[in-house]
Specification:
alpha+beta; single chain; three-stranded antiparallel beta sheet; Glucose Permease (Domain IIA)
Length: about 170
């Protein structure tokens, strides 16, 4: 019986090490909507990954997970974060907002690529009223870009507060 116990313990350790679960917090306050409703096929057809979108009501975009900024656009409309568990998230405010050339967006603390961030830390301040008037859409996709490494995703729904409420539960 000791032989079987040893084998079971070794298998259990391997399973536990390989499974990681992470909760992704809302990067912006608003209402969660289905990613398929985003008026851009890159997101709605899940070409770059799966996730959700948020119809924003807030003026700040925060880090949805602890990690490192992978890419932050000069126009401040989008950035990626790589978690300590190697989950890659892409946060993209609105649709065609790159065409605004940064107007309506302000980077906080001059974050750059490879800077570490913690959940809830403000990365971008935005002028939501201006963006509602000028952007094609303000729906904000939050996408897992390394979806091939993910075992399961639980998508939450409803109203969320940035840095507080979960939007995704990811098992890797």
């Amino acid at each position: 019986m000791n032989f079987f116990t040893d084998i079971f313990q070794k298998i259990k350790k391997k399973i536990i090490k390989k499974t990681t679960t992470i909760k992704v917090l809302a990067p912006i306050s608003g209402e969660i909507v289905d990613i398929k409703t985003v008026p851009d096929s890159v997101f709605s057809d899940k070409i770059i990954g799966d996730g959700i979108a948020i119809n924003p009501t807030g003026n700040f975009i925060v880090a949805p997970i602890d990690g490192t900024i992978g890419k932050i656009f000069d126009t401040n409309h989008a950035f990626s974060i790589i978690s300590n568990n190697k989950i890659e998230l892409f946060v993209h405010f609105g649709i065609d907002t790159v065409n605004l050339k940064g107007k309506g967006f302000k980077r906080i603390f001059n974050f750059k690529e490879k800077n570490t961030v913690t959940k809830g830390e403000i990365i971008i301040e935005l002028d939501l009223d201006y963006l509602i008037k000028t952007a094609k859409s303000v729906l904000t996709p939050i996408v897992i870009s390394n979806i091939e490494d993910i075992k399961s995703i639980k998508k939450y729904s409803g109203k969320v507060i940035a840095g507080i409420d979960p939007i995704l539960k990811i098992t890797k």
